[in-house]
Amino acid sequence: MKSLSQLVESVPASVTATMMQKGRELAAAGKDVVNLAGGEPDFNTPQHIVDAAFEAIQAGDTHYPPSFGTPELLAAIVSKLKRENNVDHITPSQVLVTPGGKWALYIALAATLNPGDEVMILDPSWVSYAPMVELNRATPVRVPLRGEDGFTVSEQLLRRYVSPSTKLLMVNSPNNPTGRVLTRAEIDAIVAVAQEHDLYVLTDEIYEHILFDDATHHSLAAEPGMAERTLIVNGFSKAYAMTGWRLGWLAAPAPIAKLARTYQTQSITSAASFTMAAGAAALNGPQDVVHRMTAAYAERRRFLLDALEEIPGLECPPVEGAFYIFPRFTATKKSSLEIAGILLEEGLIATTPGIAFGQAGEGHVRFSFATHMRDLERTVERLAKIVPNL
Ligand SMILES: Cc1ncc(COP(=O)(O)O)c(C=O)c1O
Known about the structure:
It contains 13 helices and 14 strands. Helix 6 links the parallel strand 3 and strand 4.
């Protein structure tokens, strides 16, 4: 047989998906597994959003929709950007509705990159960023943020990794896996370096509503001078508990949006028609559903942070947003992969090893707390027994 794609062969499968699958298999074999490997709200999609999709299907909205999104959803996204993010330069023609935020990220990279381009990724970073850059024949340059410094971004650090080939910087705040939310000073640092080196910035804002205490989300596209160079990716999965609907979007400078739209028509055509009615209902409807889910995450986060503080050998960085806790295992020399293996086999807790998020995540393990309090209590009980023997 002839050889297959060397490019695709060179890319690893998503560790998060693998760990989730292992957890599911153990559960199917009758094991009492707590699955904290994924990034999936345990809530059902709010009823008014479900109703909107049902109504759309009943009304015959089961044909090919406009490839880039229905006018109703594009308008809802444009007004959401103005209302919530202070971003007022985006027109409907600069928006592309996609099946999931993940495809919005992919298509943004596909529309922007050429072979030889470098993309700076702030590590620890979401597992798919670097593989997506590689699949688009560009080179990921991992900028290691130090746990000791609270995973903070500085102008000095960014400058160290910029080269004449750097085209784009990927930013994710609130962050998966660290739970960090970029401060005003960090936003200023990114803006300064992007403008000085003529970089595009791809900002993944999928966790923007999941904020704790007094953390504030700043949209990079709203910063002076950033409209022409900022690509915004967002989606419905996290804020509205809509992971299975596969719905997200890209809002980009006009020339990039134009190419992304071409790519979409020649690849997946569109997101599913009736999900778009649901998306418009989510953005235009009451937002108390989002606040209620975030309040539940806040309670779970408090519980976990307090409980893990009592377990010697674990050090938890502050969690300012998103729904992950990313403790460092301080009393063992074992790798994060080994630790995650032991947690799964001995503790029946499925997690994601820190190394999946780049070398800067080594020594850490990610636990999702978008799950029931009962599961978190069981997790803490099991950790208290396992961690001292690691
Ligand atoms: C940082 C980040 N970006 C994007 C996504 C993509 O989400 P979706 O494709 O479900 O919209 C995820 C999902 O886990 C994520 O954690």
